[in-house]
Amino acid sequence: MSDIGIFALLALATGVAAFIQGAVGIGFALIVAPVMGLVRPDLLPIALLILMLPLNGYVGLRERDAIDWKGVGWVSMGRLPGTLAGLGILVVMSANGLNQLIGASTILAVLAALFAPVFQPGRSACAAVGVITGVTETATGVGGPPLALLYQHRPGPVLRSTIALCFLVGELVSLAILAVAGQFQPHQWLWALSLLPALAVGSITSRMMHHRLNARRLRLGVLSFAMISGIVLLIPR
């Protein structure tokens, strides 16, 4: 595929994913990471983490009155050790191995999201999710499903705003540690910047539509796409 074709595909995935995340609260990394892993795995996880900063800042600010601040604090406390573990995985793993890790993580996340029982998140659950999210998001860019499981039975504004703020804090931590470890490449920044217009379109559209959408059907659609993408990534190349 040509660079123009790759850019068009990534821009489409970014815009659609930003719309879904803004409307439902999850979905951005589940959509963009597998697509990016298929066409430009060298961009992961840096470009994906950079794109998620303005998206989650926007969603968190939009519904800031509904944020569960205690939950954000406990998740963030668990994030640091998880981030260091994720960095270790990223350093030792090959591009093909990383693709397979993304695929397996995506599939497991989908299964957990579909079949996890209802529960009320406490301090220990929030901290544990912080550790898991730190590992998976730093290594692969995919960190949303554990947080979605934590808040999936809370009202939509609480889920969207709290997950967005947890992401924002965690992504800053992950990017700082990846920068210190020398994992940044200039082309990753350039690709992320070039995809910002698509991100903005999807985010703004979600603001106009998120009250009108059937969140359950949209969530099932995201999970179905993620499952298929994860299976494709597991196929050796």
Automatic annotation (TrEMBL):
Q: Which residues cross the membrane?
A: 7-31, 43-61, 101-119, 162-182, 188-206, 218-235
Q: Give UniProt keywords alphabetically.
A: Cell membrane, Membrane, Transmembrane, Transmembrane helix, Transport
Q: Which cellular components does GO assign to this protein?
A: plasma membrane
Q: Does the keyword Transport apply?
A: yes
Keyword presence, Ribosomal protein:
no
- What main location does UniProt list? membrane
Localisation: Cell membrane
**InterPro entries on file:** TM_pro_TauE-like, TSUP
| Membrane topology of the entry | Multi-pass membrane protein
Q: Give the protein family.
A: Belongs to the 4-toluene sulfonate uptake permease (TSUP) (TC 2.A.102) family.
Entry protein name: Probable membrane transporter protein
> Which organism was this protein described from?
Halomonas urumqiensis
From which lineage does this chain's organism come? Answer: Bacteria, Pseudomonadati, Pseudomonadota, Gammaproteobacteria, Oceanospirillales
